[in-house]
Design brief:
Protein name: WRKY domain-containing protein
Strand content: 25-35%
Subcellular location: Nucleus
Helix content: 10-25%
Largest sheet: 7 strands, antiparallel
Radius of gyration: 16 Å
Keywords: DNA-binding, Nucleus, Transcription, Transcription regulation
Shape: globular
Structural class: alpha+beta
Length: 153
DNA sequence: CGCCTTTGACCTGCGC
DNA sequence: GCGCAGGTCAAAGGCG
């Protein structure tokens, strides 16, 4: 764990229910249970670690770094980031939102590409990135960033 | 026709 | 300062 004491991290279940991150899991599970029920048995989902940052059970709240020149003038944002791993053969998992792919990159460690998606709903700042687990190509790692400002359906 | 992928170029932070 | 790595842009084409 690499949290500073000034970062608020909730770990108890009662506190988790207050966290925006929990909403992610709600609709995620809903969407995937409905849309991907065929592969549900193999779709084990659980939070995953990210470099340098450790996610608690259901996600965390992190302070993004100092504003870049592109962001200069805006105040520092706090974003929700949530990553998890899914055992799936396909990486285009329908979670109930409309996504527009805006980039693809090869990552150095892995032979697998990483895909960048953005929520295509007007004004919604949510992004996600999808990549395969480099050790277990059977798994897909999905990282959500931001909070949806609208309903999924 | 509108929205989507694709893809290489571009930008930026960081380490050497 | 340079090069690399990760993230984003945008022009071009595809598909309903």
């Amino acid at each position: 764990m690499s949290y500073n004491s000034n970062q608020h991290l909730t770990t108890s279940e009662s506190d988790l229910s207050e966290q925006p991150g929990l909403e992610f899991t709600d609709w995620m599970f809903d969407g995937w249970l409905n849309e991907n029920s065929s592969s549900l048995a193999d779709s084990v989902m659980y939070p995953v670690y990210q470099e340098g940052e450790v996610d608690e059970f259901v996600g965390n709240t992190i302070q993004q770094g100092q504003p870049s020149s592109r962001d200069s003038g805006r105040e520092k944002e706090v974003r929700e980031r949530f990553a998890f791993k899914t055992k799936s053969e396909i990486e285009i998992l329908d979670d109930g939102f409309k996504w527009r792919k805006y980039g693809k990159k090869m990552v150095k460690n892995s032979p697998n590409p990483r895909n960048y998606y953005k929520c295509s709903v007007e004004g919604c700042p949510v992004k996600k990135r999808v990549e395969r687990d480099r050790e277990d190509p059977k798994y897909v790692i999905t990282t959500y960033e931001g909070v949806h400002t609208h309903e999924s359906s």
